Amino acid sequence: MSSTTQDGGKSDGKSDGGTKKSALSPRLKMILTAVGVVIFAAVGIALMLQFAASERDREMRQWQSRMSIVIDSRYTDIDRWLTRQIDDLRGIADNASVQLYLTVFHEAGTDPNAEDAPAELGYLGNLLEVVADRAGFKSETTGPQVSANVQKVGVAGLALVDMDHFVIVSSSGFPPLQGKLRAFLDQAERGVTSISDIFLNESGQPSMAFVVPVYAVQADETPDSQLGYVVGVKEVAGELFPLLEQPGATEQTAETMIVRQSGNTIDYLTPRRDGTGPLKKGLAADTPNLASAWAVRTVGGFATVTDYAGNEVLAISRAFGQVPWTLVYKVDTSEALAESEQRLQLLMVVFGVIIVLVLIGMLALWYYGTSQRATEAANKFEELANRFQGQRNFMHLVTDSQPNSIVILDEDGHYRWFNKTALDLSRMDRKDMFDKHVSAILGPIEGKRIAAWVKEALAKGERLTVTHEMELGNDGPKVYRSDFQPLPAREDFPPGVLMVSQDITESVLEREKREAAMRQLVGTLVSVVDRRDPYSANHSVRVGEVARAVAQEMQVERVLVETAAIAGSLMNLGKITIPEEVLTKQGALTPDEMQLIQQSVLTSADLVKDVDFDGPVYDTLRQLQEHFDGSGTPDHLSGKDIVVTARIGAVANAFVGMVSARAWRAGMSFDKALDILLGDGNKKYDRGVVVALANYLDNRGGRDQWMSFGEPPEDGGDAQA
Asked: How confident is the model over 55-63, as a mean pLDDT?
């Protein structure tokens, strides 16, 4: 047997007596069973009710979201309509000619009704007619049809009114300034744009008035410089009420209304679904649970209330800023929640049936269990014990066949179970290894580390994977990958950790060999470029070195660290396609030659596109010239859309280019280069990468490490990069 466990127990004649004494009477068993059934049924019903309540809450939240979209859409359209009316009138009030004529009338004290009234009144009248016709401030006049000499009464139009509320000029059909219209104008504050509430005009149609102040020409817009008003009156049923309808709405009981509170009365300013016209019937504001009264009191709320017809509805409200209105959108709950209630009822029936079936099954099992003979129970127990022993032996066989070391350690680091591989690695006898501390088996250094990982895995409550070296036997140190899986405590076993260790030494050596070969290949390619372009000598190597350091400082994955270093080293590979006379040219480059140099990075990417690197070397090279704000090339990527290795490479390339000495100039100081990079942070470069570079320079010895970058080249190299 390759693993060690400890089993023990005592048995004597007293155990039978204790069993008899502890045996429950049939009556007590029946009572306990009944109590258990009742508790199960109560818990099941409680869970059903809780589920139903949560489903109703979820459905209400969904309806609130849907209704918010509708009411916000209607609110926006109505608010824009109100603003549009004011804008139409403000266009007249801001008209320089209107301001000039009103200034002349005001200073001359001219009576517009006099026979010698200026001809400018005709211009103003025509202007009002045009705007009224375009903006909808027109309607048929009303009055008796029995005589041509009877003046018909207008109900809509535009007018210029002086500060004494005298009509200077108006469009045709403008109503007399009397009644509610006169009261609204009297209440208008000087220098303030005003909108009246909805009222019924002489024809019994819902109307509104709009007032915009007119100021003297070239005067400040202050109350003292106001000369009059532009007054607009229109019937709103044809324009405003259609805005209450939501396009594409499918709810049959959905209704959008505009209401206001006047004293203790809620007025309905728009037609109701029951056929009641606007301002025809009001309801008391203290009507219990009335939807419109609730909407006025709770602006922006969502609730289940009662509408004017006594139907329970879902309602949501919004308040307007320009007028004392409240917008209400409601849907009958009988329609809104019908589908969800049917689904819930079906689920409740299904759950109820399940509970009943489970209860029946419990009773049947209890009956079956109590009817078995003691001998059958004993035989069953023996069979289970034999099966358990067989499974235990099988598990030992399986674990002992594994090439990995498998052990169970308690929370203090003592061995509680182990397979044959772990036993062989310990070079100890089976009886000596059990209950030993891991430090006694693997040594104090490795034992202390493993004990710490055990505690960490138990504290986190999740699997912990660690790659580490251990020296066991005479084979020297080997690399292991160990998984620490927490095991919860049981009655017969304390909390512990399952530790599975796999020897990955060969894989690590193979990977290191492959990486070394890759680095040699990259070095060879870089040397090829350096031979053709002496001005770029050492630049690629330095970019790769800086990129590796910054990537490690940012703690990116190991594969990405290698990717940044390789891409930095290969960024000038594309220059092998550029004619040597261009690379070694001493004078200024032509635009075409400069474009060849700039495109060489993309050429580098194309040359390595089909090489199977571990990381995104191709993407890194292709995106080296992208800018963090999206202004770079070739694809105008921005932000996190640029791979992190390309963001690192761009900063490393710029840094090396600035601090490296050239044949014709000295290298820039590290501090000045960092200031330039930080100035372009989140513009050309990722500011986080620049900060990582600065931290490496100041806190990781980067300044001393790269001090040689500023030394002048020996033969004029390292000039262009």
From this structure: 82
